[in-house]
Amino acid sequence: MKKFDVEITETLQRKVSVEAASQEDAERMVTQAWNNQDYVLDSGDFTGVNFKTVGEYELAETRTMDVLLVQPNAYPKKISVGTELEDLQAMVGGDIEVTYPFENEVAIILNESGKINGLPMNRAIYTEDGDMLHYRERFHVDAVTAAKDLQELGVNYTQEQLDQIKRAEEQRLRQRRMEREAKERERLAELYEECDDRFAFIAGYTDGGTPYGVMWEEVGIDPRLPFEEKVKFYHMQMLP
pTM (2 decimals)? Predict the structure, then answer.
């Protein structure tokens, strides 16, 4: 199926007689009279019509997808919606946000400003820590602060849940600190691999195992500085 733009041109024609000194004067007089609406052509002056195609387009296929509509205080129901951005915005009543909270490829499409605009609270998805999913990421707070904020919004937590959230947040922070320290150790090991306290760059070793290469003085770094500082200064020089 295609879409066509067809131009319709109707022709209205009337002959009038005027007295004038020349053809130019006659046409000028008639033009002025027409501009003054002395001559108004109507259906009685119709002489013909012409139809001309001026555009041809391929119609985009209307695509839909089956979704589970979950509205506040209502049972979920299966519906079909269009796949265009405007279709999804109409479904949530505003700009959309898409999130993938599950391990399988299931997307949740929601109103991006629903919380700010005071829309009714819908279902919540909780993490293993017991706090609402994405609340921490959206507002950049830790789990304990998120729980306190959500309590003010009307979310009820038992003391056991609050204690669990606190323990989980402390464990998460410890884990993050350990990961940062491990990465720092790896980074420093890479920096120190080709240098020592005398050489900024060890090019090789003699048969007797003595290193040789570029010394710290040769790269403009004071060899009396602490080893870690010398390494950092040297690699800063190497950066583009």
Answer: 0.35
